[in-house]
Every structure is written in structure tokens, then in C-alpha cells.
Amino acid sequence: MEQEAVLTGIESLPSLIKLLPFWPFVSTALGNFFFFVIITTLLMFTLVSLCLLIKYTPNVLNDFKTITNNEFPKSGIILWLVFIIALPIFFNAGPMWFTLWWFLLLWGYLNRLEKRIVYVFISLIFMSSWIAHIGAGFITYTQTHANKEIFCIQHNLGSMKDTVTITSWAQNNPDDSEPINTMAILELNRDNPEEAINLLGRTLDLEPNNSRFYNHLGIALSRTGKSKKALQAFHNSITLAPKDVTNHYNLSRLYQSTYNLIDAEKSIQRASNLNPGRVRELLDHEAANPEDKYVISRIPVFTQLSRQLRPSSELKTVADALWNTTFGIIKRNASIILAFFCIMVTILVNYRPEEKFTKRCNRCGNMFYAGDVSKSGHPLCLQCHWIATKSKKQMNSIMNNKVEEIKKYRIQNLLQTSKLELILPGLGSFIGDRTVKGVLRVYLFSACLMSIITGGQFLYSFIPSGIDMGSLFRMLGVASLIVLYWRVYNFPPLKYGI
Amino acid sequence: MALLGTLKGFGVTEIFQLISQQMKTGSLILTSPNAKVTIEFEEGIIIGISSDQWLIDPRADVLIKGGFIYDTELKSALDHKKASQEWHDILINQGKLKMNFLEKATNVVIKNILLEIFQWKEGSYRFEDWDMDTKSMLSCHIPTEGIILDTLRMIDEWPLIKQKIPPVDYCPVVIIPLTEDVVNQYDLSESDMRIFDLIDEARTVENIVKESLETQFDALNSIVRLIDCGLIEVFPKGTKDMRDYTAAKMAFFANLKKASVFILLGIIITILLLLGETRITKLTLIDPEINRQIIVQREMARDFAEQDTWLLKIDKDSYDR
Questions:
Q1: Count: domains in chain A
Q2: Which end of chain A has fewer CB within 10 Å, C or N?
């Protein structure tokens, strides 16, 4: 029900373009996109690790039996295996710990492409601290650096509470020029240009190259009748941002107020050269509201986006919370150490001889220890590797038996992988050693799932946009899922004769 | 025509395969740092093998170790050896050796030497297509491709079997007698059954391997397989009298060992449940701090919506009045 108050129905897509100048919308849209991509990717890695677990558990079980010399009951060995697989469950571990644990557990069994997936995952862990920081920047966008108050006041939506907050923020953060500029705008609105001039003087001390501050100073000075100084301020703003229409427009208004109509016309002409539509819009507005003379430059969206990503205690808390939700156990700032530790583990396991790990032959399906690897990186038993090097003409009865065994396994594998692919798109592909296809299908499946469950909406614009994209995303998700299953059904992971 | 090179560039399998495919006749001389082996081919089929490490006929060694002939009998046969008669012909004529034992010994020797050379990583080879002296060679008739497949299978499976081989001085004991049902149930091969027949509670694993006249790989594979099926068990040699007591003790410890798998697992799980901080019990998928932030956003949005403030309705510009 709460959602209904926020989302008020689907409007036309062109409305989206009208929303682009508004920071709450842009921040929310970017945040939702960011979280959609990140959560889909994480879900994909979890599903991939699950696929690999299903694929290699028989190999691990075989090795467990071999290591224990078959002296222990099979049920006991299976229970131990389940325990080892589920070990992170006993700790305050997020879903990514399971994924990481399974990847490391299966490292010795993985083929070349699967190992690359693990490396990508480890690099994600390496960057996870920064990813959590960016995510937290999007989540806390209303709570940090007085951003919400700046936006509301500059858009004439500010309440008394916002004024108090911005004043307090400006006092506590004297080096932050944007809140002081916002206070200056407040003073201009209160018809107190002298105080605005004082405040703008402070902002220009902090940021002497900010054209918006000069523009506002020009407005404040013109209100006090200091036309020469105002003219200088507007000229400064134009020097710093010659392509800003607002600066030229405000200068023309100043010339007009001092009856310098020629220069006023020149300035308007320059503004029109830059953006005639915008100038027409401003002139029309002035014609309708003669008292609205000068245009105040609002804080640009990019400035607010960069402000919301600046470090703060609120942002740090949420970034830690994000990391804790996905990983946990260790602190966020230890993520780089964790990534290095994972790399070390993989290097150490690489030193263990290949023949210590059970492998399943890609051709005949037999388990083996000492074999070879095909050109595509798939395990081959020595018999199949040898047969692969022979032409059909050289087949004899001995080899025909082996070839029959291979054919039988292929048919069985084809049926099995096709069924598994329908249970989880990508699972059959992984089991059939079609890793790239598997990754693509798992990723698409994850994206569909996330679209359907969340509708692509993780964050909310604190000022409602009036556009509901959730239903559209859900419909897209369902349609994509149908297409994916159609493709999975018609194009199974393996084909006859391949 | 001669073909020569090193084994680093061209493996033994490939050389055999080439000779087999081309159906060549001639001699392949393989030289490693430790041995030199000559293999005679006729139209791609192996017809003879010799090694410079064989001081005497290697079959004699296999037969003596397996207890099929005695040292003295061999010496006597070698002493009476003539140009037209080999030592084994003499022993066969005397009825001291059976022809099928000799054939099996030949098979063991050939397979062992081939298994060895297939694993050579360094050395050189030379193939010469003129007739060689085959008198000093061990004669055989083996399809090359068949032996390649067999040998590769052995190399493939050896690491798995190696780990399960019982101590060679232990004696296997029959636990379940062999019946037709058992053979069908476990799909036992002829080799498995021959090994089973040799088990008499007195022979050690080593003796059984020698007396089986099978290759080491096949004999040990059968023993491991019979143990895995639970048809036999192995006990230390010389403990026949104490076997019942030992068996009972071993059975107890074996059961204890089996039980310990579950007990240890239970203990570890209990400790982890007590000391660990499992997340499942918290029933929180998302950290409360994140939820709080989202709730704040939604509440703000609801407040603005109640005030009928929408982004699309906000003026594009603000003006100084």
C-alpha cells in the first residue's frame, strides 16, 4: 500500500527525459541500475557455483572414498561431504561466502574456463569494498552531506527543518561551499541581498572558479544597486562558463535594467546562439512573470552525484552493512586481504599433482586420475585422447568397442544435460562442459529472476517521479524468461554427433 | 629406411601408432638412460621383444618366483640346452612345465616391459625396416592398437588402485565364498576369479600376484576389487591362529572407526553450533541498516506525494524576485 503512494501509474517514456535534470530521479535510476547489475551478477556467481557443485560432487565423493581407503561407511562419507559443503552455514556468512567456499573447494577439479570464472569472482571480492561504497552512496543519498536539503531549498521545496539543517551543516562544515551558496539563495529569497553577498564572498573564497557563485553574486549585487560590481560578477561567471546560457541571460537582464539596450540585445543574441529554445523559454516566463528577472543556477546533477559518494559516517555504516549482507564474517576493509588469500589458496592447490583429483572423461564419462586435457581444456582419459588422434579408417574391433562406449555415454549425457538445463538454465551446459553457454544462460536467468522479483526497484526517489517502471520490468523479465526457456528447450546444451 | 628421434618430441604411443597405421615391418629400438628395448614388428603387429636388461630369459624368472619351476630344474635344463632346443622345450618335454604357464609368463613379461616403456619420458627411438635377428627375442603376436589401449587404461587407473593396495606381506582371507550369484552381482572377471581361487589364508598378497601369472596391475586390481566387494579381507601373515581373536578385535575397531565418523561429525557440528554465529537463526536476509535507509526514502516520498509534490511538476528553473 505504501508503494501505491509512491508509484502512481505508468506514464509515457518521453517523461523520463523531462526527469533527467532532477537529481533524486537520476540518483535513484543510477542506483537501481547499479544494484540490478550487481545483484544479478552475484546471483549468477551463486548459481554458477551451485552448478559446479552439482557437477563435481561425484568426483569429490570418489576422492573422499579413495582417501579414506573405502574403510568408512558410504553414508558417513556423504554426511562429511555435506558438512564440508555447508560449512559456512555455521558462521555469520552471507551468500557470497558459500559461493567462494564452493569455488575454492572445487578448484582442483575445475577446467580452464571455470577457473577463469573463479578469478573474475575473486577480482570482484578485491573490488567489493569500493562496490559497497558506491552502493552505499546510492542508498544514503538523502542522508549525507545535506544533499537533500540543498536540492529542496534550491527547488523551492525546502521546509523550516531543511533550513535549520543546512545552516547547521554550513556551521559545522565551513569548507563546504555548496551549503553556503544554498544559504545565500535562501537570503536572496528572503530579500536580504547584503547577507547573500557576505555568504557568496565566503563561497568564492572556497571555490574562486565557480561560475554559479559569481552568477548569484551578480544577482545579489544588482539587488543592492551595485550595478558595476554586478556587471563584473556576471562577466566573471561568463568567463568561467562561456557556454552557460543562464549567465548571458542574466547579464542581458542587468544591461536592460540599466537601459543599456544595445549590450542587452548583444547578450541575448549570444545566449540565443547557444540555445535559442532555452532563451525563448526564459523570455516567455519573464513576460508572464515580470517580477522573475534573474535566473538562479541550480546545483548540477553531477555535482550532487559526486557529493553523495563522498565518505561519511552514514555512508560507511551502510557500506559495511552491504558487505555484511553479502559476505560477513570479516570486516569490509579486509576484503582485499581475502582476495589475496584466495589467490594464494588457488596457487597452493595448483601445486598439488593433477592425478590427485578425480576427473571425468569428457568423451566416455569414465572417472580417471592420470589422463590428458583436450585442446579446449576438457579432461580426457588416455584411451579417448589416443582415439581422438586416429582417423575413422584406422578403426578396428578393439577401438570400435571403445567408440561404442563413447557413443553410449554421449547419448546418456545428452538426455541428462537437456533435462538439467530445463530445471536450471545453464546447469546442463556446465555439466556438458559448455561453460560459456552455461554462464550466459545462468546470467540471463538471474537477470530475469531479479526483474520479476524486484521490478528493478531497489531505491526510491524521495520526491516521487510519478513514473512506475516496476511493472514494465516485471513484464520484460517474464517475457525474457519465456524466451530463455524456449531457447533452452529448442537448443539443448549438447547435440547429436558433436 | 630408418626413422629416428627423441621421445621428448614424439612419444612412444605415437611411434607405435605410426608403425601400426603404416603396417610396417622392422625393428623399433627404444633407448632410455637405463635400458634399451628392441621390438620387432611384422605388418604393424608386435612379434618379438628383447631388452638388454634380460640376463636370462625373463620368463624363467617369472616362473621360478611363481613356484612353477625350481631353480635346479632351470639350471639342469640350461645345462642340457642344445641349439635346436630351448630350456623351456626341455622342461615341457620332461613334463616339469606346462605350455600354458609358459604362455602366461610370456604375456606377463611382455605387458610389463610395454607398461614400462610407455611411461618413458626421455630417451630416443630408431626404427629400421630390415630383418633383425629374432632368435634372442621373446616371440609373441600382439595387435599394436590393443596393447596401446590396454596400457593406457593401466596408466589411467593405476593411481586409483595404488592407494588401495593392501600391504604385500598380508594374507587375504575369504569372507564370502564365490558363487554364481556373487559373480553376477559384482560382475567379476575371469582374472578376478583366478585370483580368488589362489586365496588360501597362507599365501601373501605378493605370492598371489606372482603365482597368478597375471601382470602386477591386473592381479592387484583384482585383489582391490575383491576387497572392495567385501568378498575377501587381508590380515597380517603368521596370525592364522590368532585370526579369530584378531578378526573380532579388528571388527570391533573397524566398527568403532565407522562409528567415529558419525560421532566426530556430531561433535564438530555441536561445537560449531555452540561457538559459531549462524546467520540462519537470525532470519534476516538484509542488514537492518539498509532497510532503515530504504524506509526513510519511501516515507519521504510518501510525504511529498501527500503534499502533491512530484518531480514532473517542479519548475525547471528558480528565479530571483
A1: 2
A2: N
